[in-house]
Amino acid sequence: MRLPAGRDAVTALGAVAVAVLLSVQAGTSQGDARTLDVWGYALVVVAAGVLAWRRAAPVAALAVSVAANAAYLLAGYPYGPSLLCVGWAMFEVAWRRPIRRSALLAAVAAVTSVAAVLPRLIGELDILALGLVLWGACWLALPWSLGALLHVRSAARAELLARVALEERVRISREVHDVAGHGFAVIAMQAGVALVVLDEQPEQARASLEGIRATATAALGDLRQVLDDRRPAVVLDLAALVARARAAGLPVELTSTAGDLPAAVQDIVYQVVRESLTNVIRHAGPTSAAVVVAREPGAVLVTVTDRGTGSADVVAGRGLAGLRSRVEAAAGSFTAAGLEAGGFEVHAKLPLDGDPA
């Protein structure tokens, strides 16, 4: 067993001093108890001194303290102070070990301690039952209960922190997917256009390369701001988003009659349009898209429709699942499905607090 930390050693020395002092005082008031001698003091010192390892090795500290206390009681020394050390050690075990394990260890410690004092109480039947109840409940069960309560509280706090960390990782992953996914999709389409027209239309190829540079710069800036946990202002600019999609070669018709929207709602609207256009660029093949943002009493409607051939492949994608969770978290509704006549449609409805219903 390693040497205890300095603070733990100092605490244990204080516990030893207090336990010895209280044992001397208990001996003066318990005339029928055995007078403290070298062995009595040694057992008190062991029972209290082992608390120096109460944090590094709480189970071992409890076992040694219980053994020393049992020997102390069986030898007939004064009641009381040595059991305080057992209670402290039991508290530490309950705090630092799982509930089931600490409860079992506490039960063993309680049975051992009661068994050690039982021979001295056999001749005093009038106080036997009351003494054992008070002995077990106040000195043993109470410390374990307090330690178990702290253990549960610490475990709950750790679980909460882990959950918050997981939610933050999911949020960042989703933001990175949205920002990078859209940027890469646009870059890929522009690169394809540049390759096709490179020899015959060099000016068009140059325009596509300029678009690639602009898209990459914007995507890197957005990504940097996402990782810095700041929302870029361009996130709320639907016109700029549609312009980038058009520059990538996707004809997009934008119709917006929603007017000014709350920032949180406007952000979700942008996310829906961006992810939907990204999917059209990636999966729909040669086609066009229509984006409609309309306001109705108490809500705003967002619809993105295309007439492509491959959009149905994205139904189970991570992006649409992320959109659904965003919209539903804002108490809205979300659908994404293929159309009978071909193509794909994404539809979201978001409530507007304060709007007349």
UniProtKB/TrEMBL annotation:
Gene3D superfamilies: 1.20.5.1930, Histidine kinase-like ATPase, C-terminal domain. GO terms for molecular function: kinase activity. InterPro entries: HATPase_C_sf, HATPase_dom, Sensor_HK_TwoCompSys, Sig_transdc_His_kin_sub3_dim/P. Residues 266-353 form the Histidine kinase/HSP90-like ATPase domain. Residues 168-233 form the Signal transduction histidine kinase subgroup 3 dimerisation and phosphoacceptor domain. The chain crosses the membrane at residues 36-53, 60-79, 99-118, 125-146. Its EC number is 2.7.13.3. Keywords: ATP-binding, Kinase, Membrane, Nucleotide-binding, Phosphoprotein, Transferase, Transmembrane, Transmembrane helix, Two-component regulatory system. It catalyses: ATP + protein L-histidine = ADP + protein N-phospho-L-histidine. It is an enzyme of class 2 (transferase). It holds the Pfam family HATPase_c. This is histidine kinase.
